[in-house]
Amino acid sequence: MENQPISIKKSAVNYGVILGAVLALMTTLMYVLNPDLFTKWYVGIISFIIIIAMGIVSTAKAKGILGGMMNFKQGFTVYFITVALGLLISTLVGILIFNIIDPDMAANLQEKTLAMTAEMLEKFGTPQAAIDEQMAKMSEQNNFAIGSQLKSYVFSLAFMSVIGLLVALIFKTKNPNPLN
């Protein structure tokens, strides 16, 4: 029994590395092929779905490793390790691209994001004073700075952890023989 928690953690690490590789590949391909994809809302939705799916697959695999019996803590731990590692790898790739390889790309994307936000606010009929105020706030922030990306990592991990609690709850099983 001692080896099983180690093997589910090892499995979670493996899935986390796979998730990180997929997200890093997506980031790299977007950077190389079409950097404007970084400003598209649907890319975030696709990433979100991939992250949750990989967390679920990892949790299901762990339940299989444990012979179908998994408690809440084991389920959440596996999900968390997978997602935390995958997001960390993706964040490090983002930091590498936007702060070391091509900082000018980050500035360009920041400008495009500002323009898109102003356009969206105008479409919603937001008063010009409010738009100007929002643009001033956004122009002070650098979403691609190392600190901003690390903060985004922490907030993403916190949000994904809430989903992980639900996944662990769904995958947990009650031990039919509580004496063991």
From TrEMBL:
Keywords tagged on the record: Membrane, Transmembrane, Transmembrane helix
Coiled-coil intervals, chain numbering: none
Listed transmembrane segments: 12-33, 39-57, 78-101, 153-171
Pfam families reported for this sequence: DUF4199 (PF13858)
Cited InterPro entries: DUF4199
Protein name per Swiss-Prot or TrEMBL: DUF4199 domain-containing protein
Organism of this sequence: Aequorivita vitellina
Higher taxonomy: Bacteria, Pseudomonadati, Bacteroidota, Flavobacteriia, Flavobacteriales
